[in-house]
Amino acid sequence: xxxxxxxxxxxxxxxxxxxxxxxxxxxxxxxxxxxxxxxxxxxxxxxxxxxxxxxxxxxxxxxxxxxxxxxxxxxxxxxxxxxxxxxxxxxxxxxxxxxxxxxxxxxxxxxxxxxxxxxxxxxxxxxxxxxxxxxxxxxxxxxxxxxxxxxxxxxxxxxxxxxxxxxxxxxxxxxxxxxxxxxxxxxxxxxxxxxxxxxxxxxxxxxxxxxxxxxxxxxxxxxxxxxxxxxxxxxxxxxxxxxxxxxxxxxxxxxxxxxxxxxxxxxxxxxxxxxxxxxxxxxxxxxxxxxxxxxxxxxxxxxxxxxxxxxxxxxxxxxxxxxxxxxxxxxxxxxxxxxxxxxxxxxxxxxxxxxxxxxxxxxxxxxxxxxxxxxxxxxxxxxxxxxxxxxxxxxxxxxxxxxxxxxxxxxxxxxxxxxxxxxxxxxxxxxxxxxxxxxxxxxxxxxxxxxxxxxxxxxxxxxxxxxxxxxxxx
Length: 474
What we know:
Blueprint: E1 26-31, H1 37-49, E2 57-61, H2 64-69, H3 71-81, E3 88-91, E4 96-99, E5 105-110, H4 114-118, E6 129-133, H5 140-149, E7 158-163, H6 171-178, E8 183-187, H7 197-204, H8 206-209, H9 211-218, H10 232-239, E9 247-255, E10 260-267, E11 273-275, E12 285-290, E13 299-305, E14 311-317, H11 321-334, E15 339-342, H12 349-356, E16 364-368, E17 375-379, H13 387-402, H14 409-417, E18 419-420, E19 426-427, H15 435-445, H16 447-461
Parallel strand pairs: 1-7, 1-8, 2-5, 2-6, 6-7, 12-15
Antiparallel strand pairs: 3-4, 4-5, 9-10, 9-11, 11-14, 12-13, 13-14, 16-17, 18-19
Helix pairs in contact: 1-3, 10-14, 11-12, 13-15
């Protein structure tokens, strides 16, 4: 049975109208708070349930109880506002909604019980639609399980995800938005014609009291609310201005098992080294390196102009330690035999391999021999309970005072997610990485040794006389 329901387009916010009939398999609604996106999605599904086509909807959040406080009342609100209560049967206990006209259904579940989701069935046929509200709360593996639920059957399938973009490094951004997998609708409170002037005024007052929160929460810019260690406002401003790399690629060379020869650069858009400034013969450079540790992180390197502290090149890739060592050799030679300082905690192989290849311009630290008690000099940077807070504190200052020296967007995005845990330790969030933070921090820490070596070389060339302006360490 069908009944004619007159729904004027005036009941919808205009920005969402192009998505009312959208049938792309994945559809993302994201943006600022109070944009009306969740209410529109609820409207959209009531509209679909009233039509003859099959529409059986599963609404999920991270927990089932959060549905009871948000999406379930929202669905009921739309039904009531449109005066359609007589056409829907609502089961409050089980959070189940059935359209009496078409037999189409809505059920609600939490991703905290994936097994229960697997057993959900619909009396009039198969699952056709999934709405994931506050999708950034969900784990990637759970969303993948929902994708499995969408397979099979003859009906057209669609998954809708909605959220506020408060974590710039979130897997959802990479998986659905950056990849182009989904059609995307971005909206803010400015697109919501149903907000009162008083509501808008309350949101806009944040501009003066907390500009960063206003940009993230109200304007829907990717960021992290209230947790980041590094200056979020500075990073957000820099992300709007970062340059594109001059070149992207990697080095190729001939290698006979003993030495690297015939080194050359190869342009490759999919390469793992980005060059932001080409080498200047009159400049001195240093390279900080962070190894992959237990294998979960990447091998990373940051090249700095030692005088200005500007990030001029960046390497980040998952590969074997020997290949990383050879790329570091080439990168160092390319930037005028730059000083290389690689973290020595987890994997000292790259340090020893550079030494074997004849690259001796490595950062030197002092270490106490546990057997003789004597102080020795060793290659590589050692991260300890004393050195780690020191180098990170220096990087915090650099981000706050000289964020314009950081050219790589990926680096900035990672810094924006670094948090202080309950014990006060600065680290990556669960599931995140801090390899780029450590690589850049080490690079800035070893700049001082470049200054010393630079002046020593000048004195040797000039017969011991100091000449020229000293290198300023920011």
